[in-house]
């Protein structure tokens, strides 16, 4: 009886691992890719096409045929031409597909160029905040297991002639079906970002190539600005604080119903502006803050230009993702922790260590300190502030837990704004205490943040689709007494000459700081200066 049992198990095993043709293998991989990884794509098509029932069915059927045949063709080619390397490639794609779909389902993201760029610019310390048993189980079930099948399933490779017939026929059918849907060109063009960001594995493959090309182009030296000159020798210190994921609506200074700015609300000489970010992710947001014009080109950035002009410039950061910074003093949180071992380096307070001494010890009349913070960056907001700032409780440990209780997620986020309030108040008090110096503090966030509104979380949604909370940012300024006067703010977006628009941009930082540092330059544009000259 036992012998018979083992014989039957052996028969089942032989059937399970029986070699199949490359044609059958490619068909299985193609169908599996569609069913396991592309449900969000078709869900988007169903809910966003305005075609009638017949047109909708035809469009969806056409997309199914195109997706199946393209995935079949690429699988067939990869396996026939690469053999074992092709198996490894399919395993890797299966793993990444599962990861991408998990984040699409969990965080309602789109795997577009912005998202891929954020992945490349994320450190392990931040990425680990997304790790959970749910993520690992999903990847194992929908990524690892299908990938192992691709690695281990025996295949009958067949001849090159069959490959040509199968792949050539697939391509011909794809072209015919695509031509039959030529009337959908306009609709596809209107939704290309969403469609391209949801179809796997093409979303991250194509956008990774785009990001790599972009990074390669940005390795070139920035376009130099015309030379500038410093017109006076008055002692001046400017501290530019680049916020992280700070959304305006959660600041008490902008009317929020919680006391998230108890200290700043009592500061004299504080000015707030309505402002919008130019992007919803760090790399582009920081670039916009530091550049003179809104451009896809890389112009000489504010710290680099000020440094070349003769200003004493220091860059301190607990973050990453900024464009190339070319100054002599560039200090990370690790560098600062070594210089100031008595200060807790786990939080953004390390950026303020020895700040007054650093400014007053300068041998130059003009000093610019840039602090690149990470205070409100998810997914673990509760890890971004010391526990004495956990005023609002209970808090969610991370965004994934916060999905189950949005109030707890907002509590954790509001505590990061409370900590930001403390940091900015501390900077102002340091500058105010420096006798004989003109001084100013500017705080502007790189972008905003979603906290569950419309089931969206964090940031990175393309600007044309982004909710307001992802681009409406705080822009807070303090200046010492009798230093600079502000321009009046117009109620209109198209402000008259000499006035500021109702909502300003991140580019106002570059030209306003040039004014504060008394830099005369052909690159200066008074229309983007919040101060009178």
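-> sequence recovered:
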């Amino acid at each position: 009886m036992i012998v018979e049992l083992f014989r039957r198990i052996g028969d089942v095993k032989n059937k399970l691992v029986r070699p199949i043709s490359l044609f059958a293998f490619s068909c299985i991989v193609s169908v599996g890719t569609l069913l396991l990884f592309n449900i969000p794509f078709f869900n988007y098509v169903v809910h966003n096409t305005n075609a009638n029932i017949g047109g909708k069915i035809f469009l969806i059927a056409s997309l199914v045929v195109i997706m199946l045949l393209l995935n079949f063709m690429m699988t067939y080619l990869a396996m026939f031409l690469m053999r074992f390397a092709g198996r490894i490639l399919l395993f890797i794609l299966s793993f990444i597909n599962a990861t991408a779909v998990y984040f699409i389902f969990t965080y309602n993201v789109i795997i577009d160029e912005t998202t891929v760029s954020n992945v490349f610019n994320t450190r392990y310390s931040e990425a680990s905040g997304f790790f959970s048993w749910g993520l690992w189980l999903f990847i194992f079930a929908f990524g690892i297991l299908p990938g192992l099948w691709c690695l281990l399933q025996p295949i009958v490779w067949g001849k090159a002639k069959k490959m040509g017939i199968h792949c050539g026929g697939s391509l011909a059918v794809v072209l015919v079906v695509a031509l039959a849907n030529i009337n959908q060109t306009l609709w596809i063009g209107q939704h290309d970002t969403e469609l391209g960001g949801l179809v796997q594995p093409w979303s991250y493959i194509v956008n990774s190539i785009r990001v790599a090309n972009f990074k390669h182009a940005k390795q070139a030296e920035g376009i130099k600005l015309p030379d500038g000159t410093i017109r006076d020798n008055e002692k001046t210190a400017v501290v530019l604080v680049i916020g992280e994921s700070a959304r305006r609506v959660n600041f008490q200074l902008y009317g929020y119903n919680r006391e998230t700015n108890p200290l700043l609300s009592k500061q004299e000489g504080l000015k707030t502006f309505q402002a919008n970010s130019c992007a919803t992710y760090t790399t582009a947001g920081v670039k916009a803050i530091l550049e003179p014009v809104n451009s896809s080109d890389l112009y000489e950035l504010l710290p680099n230009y000020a440094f070349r002009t003769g200003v004493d410039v220091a860059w301190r950061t607990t973050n990453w993702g900024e464009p190339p910074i070319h100054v002599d003093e560039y200090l990370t949180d690790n560098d600062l922790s070594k210089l100031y071992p008595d200060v807790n380096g786990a939080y953004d307070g390390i950026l303020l260590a020895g700040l007054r001494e650093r400014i007053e010890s300068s041998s130059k009349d003009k000093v610019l300190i840039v602090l690149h913070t990470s205070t409100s960056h998810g997914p673990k907001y509760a890890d971004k502030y010391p526990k004495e700032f956990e005023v609002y409780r209970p808090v969610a440990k991370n965004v994934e837990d916060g999905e189950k209780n949005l109030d707890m997620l907002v509590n954790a986020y509001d505590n990061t704004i409370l900590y930001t309030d403390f940091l900015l108040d501390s900077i102002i008090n340091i500058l105010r205490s420096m006798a004989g110096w003109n001084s100013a503090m500017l705080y502007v966030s790189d972008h905003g943040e979603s906290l569950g509104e419309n089931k969206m979380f964090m940031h990175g949604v393309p600007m044309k689709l982004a909710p307001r909370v992802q681009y409406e940012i705080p822009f807070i300024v303090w200046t010492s007494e009798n230093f600079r006067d502000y321009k009046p703010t117009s109620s209109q977006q198209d402000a008259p000459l000499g006035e500021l628009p109702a909502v300003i941009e991140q580019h106002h930082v570059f030209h306003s700081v040039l004014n504060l540092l008394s830099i005369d330059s052909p690159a200066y544009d008074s229309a983007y200066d919040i101060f009178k000259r």
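The first strand starts at residue 20 and ends at 21.
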